[in-house]
From TrEMBL:
It comes from Staurois parvus. It comes from the Eukaryota. This is Transposase Tc1-like domain-containing protein. Transmembrane segments: none annotated.
Amino acid sequence: MQTASTNIGERLCNKSIRDISWLLNIPRSTVSRIITKWKHLGTTAIQPPSGRPRKMTEWGQSILKRTVRRSHQLSAEPIAKDLQTWCGLQMSPTTVRRERNGMGFHGRAAATKPYITKCNASSDAMV
């Protein structure tokens, strides 16, 4: 990047950010950002993303979504075993739970509803 190297070269020649901005005809915020990046990293090149890559691929997510929709009462352990047999993805139940929750499927117990008898139904109708 020609601008970044020129930018840093000007900075090393004790020019101000405003002067560099005026010379190169780029915004002061851009000049400042490039100089800050160079000071912290020693380079202005694009850095690789930080963190561990995701374990579950998009293909695995679609299989997980299909499995959860088909049988929504399965817990994370059998789903993890199914993913291992079908896809070969070695995954812990915690990862399955996290991915499932990220898709919007949350494990909740159904609300218990009382059995309505003829006697209950007739008393409710009167109220």
